[in-house]
Amino acid sequence: MKLSATIAGTVASVLLAGLAVAQNPATPPAAPVPLTVGQSPPYTTMARHTMTGEVTRVSPEKGRLFVKTPEGRMLLHFPSSALQNVKKGDSVTVELALKDNGPTPKTK
Fold first, then answer.
1. DSSP letters for 38-98
2. CATH number of 45-100: 3.30.565.10, 2.40.50.140, 3.30.1330.10, 1.10.540.10?
3. What is the pLDDT of residues 16-63, one digit of tens each?
């Protein structure tokens, strides 16, 4: 009987330790991004997704970046200055965030 209690206690300890480890993020959080006027803080986002892909086409003069990822192809828009050193074939990491701004205001 004493052995059963010892085994049960050990199993419970291992499970609790596993839960504690699972709650810690695998990667450190990203450095805070400076906000522009009118931009909400990042903690108000509903969802965040990071993916890596290959640049298939870049048009710095138009601010367009075409990226092929395992999730699909994307057309992204950036300031022209941000794309000056990006070339076709480069590997890039894209981080997307989704924020619900509520219902669209009605216009008259």
1. TPPPGGG-SEEEEEEEEEEEEETTTTEEEEEETTEEEEEE--GGGGTT--TT-EEEEEEEE
2. 2.40.50.140
3. 444 444 444 444 455 555 555 555 555 566 888 899 999 999 999 999
